[in-house]
Amino acid sequence: MDGPEEGATPIRVVLAKLGLDGHDRGLKVVARILRDAGMEVVYLGLRQTTATIVDAVEQEDADVVGISMHNAGHLTLAPLIVAALVAAGLGNVPVVIGGVVPDEDVGELEAAGVGAVIGPGTSATEVVASVRRVVDGRHG
Amino acid sequence: MADQHRTLSGIPVDPVYGEGPLPGEYPYTRGIHAGMYRNRLWTMRMFAGFGTAGDTNGRFRELLRSGGTGLSTAFDMPTLMGRDSDHPLALGEVGRAGVAVDTVEDMADLFADIDLGVVTTSMTINGPAPILLAMYVAVAEQGGVERGRLAGTLQNDILKEYQAQKEYLFPPRPSVRLVTDVIRFTAAEMPRWNPVSISGYHIREAGSTAAQELAFTLANGFAYVEAAVAAGLDVDDFAPRLSFFFNSHSDFFEEIGKFRAARRIWARWMRERYGATDERSLRLRSHTQTAGVSLTAQQPEVNIARVAIQALAGVLGGTQSLHTDSYDEALALPTEEAARIALRTQQVIAHESGVVDVADPLGGSAYVEWMTDELERRAEEVFARLDDEGAGSILEGVYAGIESGWFMGEIAESAYRFEREVNAGDRIVVGVNAFTEGDEGRAGRLLRIGQDTEDLQRRRLAGVRHARNGAAVRETLSRVAVDAEEPEANLMPAILEAARARATVGEIVNVLEGVFGTYVETAVV
Amino acid sequence: MAGTGEERKPAELLAAARGGQRRAVARLLTLVERGGGAAEAIAAATHPLTGAAHIVGITGAPGTGKSTLTGALTTLLAAEGRRPAVVAVDPSSPLTGGAILGDRVRMEAATGAGVFIRSMATRGHAGGLALAVPGVVRVLDACGFDPVLVETVGVGQIEVDVAAAADTAVVVVTPGWGDAIQANKAGLLEVADLFVVNKADRPGASDARRDLDLMLDLSEVSGAAAGTGADAESRPAIIETTATEGEGVQDLLRAVDAHHRALKAGPGLQARRDRRFVAEVRARLEHVLIQAADDVLVDVDSRSGATPVEAARHLADRFLDTDTPR
Does residue A1 register a pLDDT over 70? Predict the structure, then answer.
């Protein structure tokens, strides 16, 4: 065998905040949680647009993208990011939404193509499990 | 009841107990007034803002009717970021988490039928703070209230934006110049106005510890003092109007110690390092808000208990003004009912608990005094570090810490440590990682702002753009640009003219960005 | 990676990538990073297609503003109609194997200008980076990106070597903090073709330049020429930039291009590429040998009576003389 071992490739996650809202405590904590679970986190940080997120997912060959929203705009913005990924031929990359998302919105987000919703108070273990679950479920 | 203060059992109590320095005496550890709440209760200032200016105006008037004694405005994210409601990046965020203000017309609607000569108003705005202040002045003067009579507070604390809250527009140095422009303007023309509310609240919400909140906030305060003195002001000309804004979290005695340490540090630094002689320059006045970050989405009613404990810590810590969070805020904007319970919580503390009868009732407690000393010691370590980094200037030290991402790294580290403790079960959060039974779905009714509000606000903005005098807008904006280029000029008069001409927040910000540039953070995760 | 489904063949991907499909480029890079048979196939297919791109290494201590500078430089390149790509390398956590790759934050304008940016983690395994980066650069070169910038944190020897294995190696320092001296300690001075004093608006910029000049003088006196060895045509230029303001970035671009032209005009460029070829062969060989060593180590018996030195000698003789690993 030549080169690095096959099969040990870490999950690659793009993490971003979409829109103007600057609450990035949760995003940073999640970045560390995922790193500590052995994932490679491509951190985009604040004030991203659907275009910059799609570019990053494409160029980084990400397995999953996590978007954090605390601006109560998730019902407007989450479907836009899903649609933009599909339009770029990246519809197989699941979208995970985190932040302040009331339970009653989860159904609508999932119907719009969001792979998982990580609400307030989700434990680190559950965060990692959600990400792994949606990645495992690609094409499935 | 008159001036006799008795316990529920009828035992008379003195205004204060213990030996000096007493409340109202330097270094004010025990409070900035001798009588404290026996003479005057804190201001029950409830933060509100959502939807259009008209929507928020309705909530303001309801809060004043229910016994609230001051107003506090939450702006929506596009306004906080200096973007108009029709900006592409504003999509989905207009009026959602605060009120949308694009022009002086919105500001007029926001305070319609409220006497600005009587009420005190706080505005939580930072990057575009001079613009929103100008709009407020324009509305008041249009209604016949001279700017000199206006009382209130502009948050206008840009340094913590780079450290924690991330609502910055321009790079730090020109932004601090805008802060000092406002300080100079209000020192000269608005004697009842607090030009900066130096805020630890957001530093704490971003994940810092109480000790970090204390240290970083006071360091930012020293930085503004140094900047204003460098801009040519005498320290006693403006320091009496500087105010602070702290978080009150759940660790009861640590919070109380934090408030007490803050007053002592400020008094000593102002006198000894910055040479203030006016007693009012030495007294740290603060607004306090309970910790939004401590609210849980699980079993949200339990938040009412958390808020009560945190509010009590704020009062026992000697705050001048208090906002209590609503129990449903972990999920969405507070409903009117939840906001009323939050206000009632303050009223129970003020009128039923008896803690207001004696100034600093915890003073002299061995634990509280030790905690106060310990937090002060930890803060002094941070000041020494910043002073060193800034070669004798706290302002330069703060700039360096922002640029290197030091503040952000420290805060992120604390946030992550807390998260790991909760995840490991080392720290219990009731209803989240323990005592989780009984969480039957989350709070029923949520206040939602929909896309229709956003569309309405865009139409209103289009209407204003259509009706105004375009030539006047261009002319006033070009004066803003000219004054921005001139570091000695105060930008406030030019911004006030532009606001009167109905220039939008976004238009004025664009002009300033053209001169000052924009800021991209050093990402420290 | 779990469940990547209908995997396109490397050849098919390469055709799509060369046709401009960025998703295919990204996928190729993933396969190269992962190693194994697919990586070998890609190396074989791309090697004949390389050589056009100018490879630029950018390294420096943490906090010197490398990412911002790389972002500003590539934004400018894109504005000139060129097709730059960036490989930004950050360390993996040795404990968990995970990584936080934050370079894109500082390259926002570049992303907007269409620059292709790929973040890479060092992925722990010995020499992995030295194996993966040349393959990644080869793919980008074969897909028509030019120049290809490789940005690393200049703290470890491997990271420094990776950036140094370029046509043009740029070392970034900042004023104050004894940065120039630190760079000297880290061995960065020896590899630099160009120095950048970034954050030149800060006090101490001229001191940093003076420190660099002084150290270059010393190394000339001692005979250890700066630049990567024998082909060091001239003393490295020192450029002052304030990347956050875009100041000096144009100067840096001109200096990078000038260095490239000078290399091409002489034997320098070919010499560097030859050296890079040897270095990659060496890295692969080391990798193979280490694995072979790991394989025979299971036979070591600590109670055999042999000393460790004797045991090593015995094993080395065994696999060097006879069964040469493939």
Answer: no
Token pair belonging to C276? 């890079």
CATH 3.40.50.280 is held by the domain A12-136: yes
DSSP B179-217: HHHHHHHHHHH-TTEE--EEE-HHHHHTT--HHHHHHHH
What's the pLDDT score for residue C162?
Answer: 79
Inter-chain CB proximity C34 and A42 less than 8 Å: no
Burial B512-522 (b: 16+ CB within 10 A, else e): bbebbeebbbb
Cβ contacts (< 8 Å) between C63 and chain B: which residues? 404-405
Chain A residues closer than 8 Å to B77 by CB: 19-21, 71
Core vs surface per residue B7-43: b (16+ CB within 10 A) or e: eeeeeeeebbebeeebbbeebbbbbbbeebbbeebbb
CATH superfamily of B36-424: Methylmalonyl-CoA mutase (3.20.20.240)
In chain A, where the domains are located:
12-136
User: Taking the domains of chain B in order of start, what are their residue ranges?
Assistant: 36-424
Give the DSSP letter string of A18-67: ESS----HHHHHHHHHHHHTT-EEEEEEEEE-HHHHHHHHHHTT-SEEEE
- Does residue B245 contact residue B125 with C-beta atoms inside 8 Å? no
- The DSSP letter of residue B518 is -
The residues that bridge with C237 in the sheet, in sequence order, are C194
Q: Assign 3-class secondary structure to B24-46.
A: CCCCCCCCCCCCHHHCCCCEEEE
- At B134-182, the pLDDT tens digits run 999 999 999 999 999 999 999 999 999 999 999 999 999 999 999 999 9
Per the CB < 8 A criterion, the answer to whether C29 and A40 are in contact is no
Beta-bridge partner residues of A48: A18
Per residue in B290-306, pLDDT (tens digit) is 999 999 999 999 999 99
Which of A21, A29, A70 has its CB closest to that of B419?
A: A29
Instruction: Find residues 163-182 of chain B whose CB sits inside 8 Å of chain C.
Output: 171
Better pLDDT: A45 or C233? A45
Dihedral of the alpha carbons of B109, B114, B116, B120, in degrees to the nearest 10: -110
Mutate to test the interface with B, among A13, A15, A17, A20 (most CBs of B within 10 A): A20
The 10 Å Cβ neighbour count of residue C18 is 16
| Amino acid, single-letter form, for residue B55 | D
Its ipTM equals 0.92
Closest C-alpha among A140, A133, A103, A104 to residue A116: A133
A20 with B80: Cβ contact below 8 A? yes
Contact (Cβ atoms closer than 8 angstroms) between residue B291 and residue B248? yes
Helix, strand or coil, per DSSP, at residue B137:
helix
Structure tokens at B128: 């575009």
Q: Are C79 and C109 in contact (CB under 8 A)?
A: no
CA distance B418 to chain C (A): 19
Other beta carbons within 10 Å of C62: 10
